[in-house]
Amino acid sequence: MHRIIAALLAATSCVSAAHAQSPVASAPPARADQTTPIAVYALEDAIGAAGGSAPSVEAAEAGIHAAQAGRRIAGLRPNPTVDTMVENVVGSGPYKGFNSAETTVSFAVPIELGGKRSARIAVADAQTRRALLTAAITQADVRLQVTQLYVDAVATKWRAFTARDQLSIANDAFSAARVRVQAGRASPIEEQRADVARLNAQAGVDRAQRLADAARINLERRLGQPIVGVLDMNALDKIPAVSYGPATTAEASGTLALAAADADLAYADAGVRLAKSQRVPDVTLGPGLRRLEATGDTAALFTLSIPIPVFNSGRAAVDQASALRSQAEARRRVTALDIEQAITDAQAEVDNAATAARNANGPALAAAQEAARIARIGYREGKFGQLELLDAERTLADTRIAAIDALATYHNAKARLERLTTPAPAPAPEQGN
């Protein structure tokens, strides 16, 4: 980016013999005599602000709380029941009224068999791990979104600076053309052509400033708060040096996406275990008391209830859970292939963007700057025509924009690659039963 700054400053040199102009905004606004430094709102500041206020992060945290509550529910045992039954009442003959009533009070305790409780806990633990991964994925997505918005805001700001410099150059070219026309050294067409270029440059400034304002507003909207200070205009400076080593192999292991697929597979495994445990019938047993009103005697009783799996043996549920488990396993393999392919493509995109950024901010920018300088000198001395000057200035402006775009493309591609290769968090220790 320092080359862009140098080009912007060089572009404000003389366009005509009497070319003298004031400095333009080719860098972030700052006063030379300013004693209090302006606070810089860096990318990490934006990421930190968005991470605590993004609705998606709040939704993910609510999902974690729900999964943790589900884990507590899964560990609870079935509630016992108290049954009261009155027989031989309000009938005829000796059973008229309540004289022959038999009152039974029993206490029933359901006993789960087949490991149902531990299977439920395994399902709940799998859901909790998936919720934690979802939260980590959400944080990574927020980081990517904020990074892209921040890069876009900085890039549009640089484009606005470039547009202002082009307007200053166009104004000076118009003044130079007017002097040449008044001196009889050029046709009035040159003045009209320069005026058109000046008007187009003014429109370009307005358009670039609107885009810069919109990019900053979008960033503030994502952060949920206004930006205090100025953006880090050097955020796009860093470009890696040329690498001649062998290309790195894309590995899906350890990434968030593959960890999520593993969590889905673990959840499906727990579902198979739960379905198998449901095939074992539970029993309900407990003591009770019966009072005979006719004799005033009391007798104890014992109840045992065992369901008979005649119509629903649970086999279909096991088949369903097994099919879902096979589906999750296949999706896990597909996810691994997709991640490795995406990482390979993203790495190639990063390398290509880095090459384009180095070229655009190096030889191409230097050549365009030199061509514009020669065209200005030649135009002043009458060796070049106005068309050559306008073409050189247009080429320089396009090269500056291309340099800014190349830097923005590189940093966005790098952010996408970092998102794909974000490591999964370490699994949290499981709770006791």
Largest sheet: 4 strands, antiparallel
Taken in chain order, the helices and strands follow as HEHHEEHHEHEEHHH
Low-confidence stretches: 1-34
Number of strands: 6
Q: Give helix % range.
A: 55-70%
| SS-based class | alpha+beta
- Total number of helices: 9
Strand fraction equals: 5-15%
What does this structure look like?
The protein has helices spanning 2-10, 43-51, 55-74, 116-182, 188-223, 256-278, 315-360, 363-380, 386-420, and strands spanning 40-41, 81-87, 102-111, 230-231, 283-292, 297-305. With 433 residues, it is α+β, with helices and mostly antiparallel strands. The strands form two sheets. The protein has a four-stranded antiparallel β-sheet with strand order 2-3-5-6, with no helix packed on it. It has a two-stranded parallel sheet with strand order 1-4. Helix 3 (55-74) runs antiparallel to helix 4 (116-182), helix 4 (116-182) packs antiparallel against helix 5 and helix 7 (315-360) packs antiparallel against helix 9.
